[in-house]
Amino acid sequence: MKKIALITGAGRGLGWELTNQLTKHGYFVIMGVRDEQKGLAAWERLPEKNAASVMVLDMEDQASFPQVYAQLEKRNGKLDLLVNNAGVMLDGDLMKNSTNTISAELLKKTFDVNFFGIVALTNTLVPLLLKSTTPAIVNISSNMGSLHLLATEPAMPKTFAYNTSKAALNAYTLHLAYLLADTPVKVNAVHPGWVKTDMGGDAAPLEAAEAVASIVQLILQGANAPTGQFLHQGQEVKW
Ligand code: NDP
After folding, report:
1. ipTM, 2 dp
2. Domains in the chain: how many in total?
3. Torsion of CA 209, 210, 211, 212, to 10 degrees
């Protein structure tokens, strides 16, 4: 039986490229998308269409997560890989001043997608991951969530909502890895690099294909993968 992966935010950017590469490595990928029509158009662009399907999944709609569990359980009976990729950067243009100027609403929306949604979805799906022999959770984080880099690199962009939401995601990664240490579930956070996507922009040095290839390398390690790590192209990033 094929390995089953759920990738959130799979309709474009890194999520689509992860889907593309994992289907070529023998995974069946369920593409979590907010908008079914746009998701189907993204699915249509895949070279390996038969190895993927689309599931409506809005990270802000936590009430729908038990239904996501039920659908996955009914169709596949297990989940081998969860990639928490969906994310937003809503204060990218506020940068340095965003600690002062960001609205409570924007801060909350950022955390709803980048943190609370991920925590709720992951906690819902852990029982299904435990039915796999080589389960893994990959949280797509950012070096902008590294407190070490924020403290030591003056050039690190200061986008308050995004930085803090990814720092919280990193802390969750460590907690979950600790909690699941006696199980086969590998839990890691990954910094993909600065990548040309809608979020990363055209000035970014990395193509999505290159950034995703190193994440796929980690995934393909299966039972030999590390757990509780924050990684960029196979190297540790300081938390
Ligand atoms: P994009 O902006 O290109 O894509 C973001 C994805 O997240 C889209 O698929 C979008 O779906 C989805 N999304 C946003 N909000 C929700 C929601 N409420 N529910 C479900 N899906 C949602 O970003 P990237 O591909 O660049 O980013 C992917 C991940 O990588 C993010 O977590 C980001 O923080 C991280 N990252 C990216 C970097 C970069 O340089 N690009 C650098 C470091 C980290 P929709 O199409 O419906 O809007």
Report:
1. 0.99
2. 1
3. 50
Torsion of CA 122, 40, 19, 82, to 10 degrees: 10
> Which residue's CA is the closest to the ligand 1 atom numbered 13?
86
Residues in the chain, total? 239
Strands 186-190 and 230-232: parallel
Query: For residues 36 and 6, what is the distance between their CA atoms, to the nearest angstrom?
Result: 15
Residue 88, ligand 1, Cβ within 6 A: yes
Regarding the beta carbon of 195 and ligand 1, being less than 6 Å apart is answered: yes
pLDDT tens readout for residues 76-97: 999 999 999 999 999 877 666 6
Query: What pLDDT digit, counting tens, does each position of 98-133 carry?
Result: 666 788 999 999 999 999 999 999 999 999 999 999
* pLDDT higher than threshold 80 for residue 181: yes
pLDDT of residue 124: 98
To 10 degrees, what angle do helices 65-76 and 117-129 make?
A: 30
Q: Residue 228 belongs to a domain with what CATH number?
A: 3.40.50.720
| Token duo for residue 197 | 């996507």
Residue with structure tokens 């992860």? 18
Residue 97: what pLDDT? 62
Name the closest-CA residue to atom 29, ligand 1. 85
How remote is the CA of residue 113 from the centroid of ligand 1, in Å? 10
Q: Which domain holds residue 211?
A: 3-236
Residues acting as catalytic residues: 162
* Residues ≥6 apart with Cβ < 8 Å to 123: none
Over residues 198-219, the mean pLDDT reads 97
CB of 59 within 6 A of ligand 1: the answer is yes
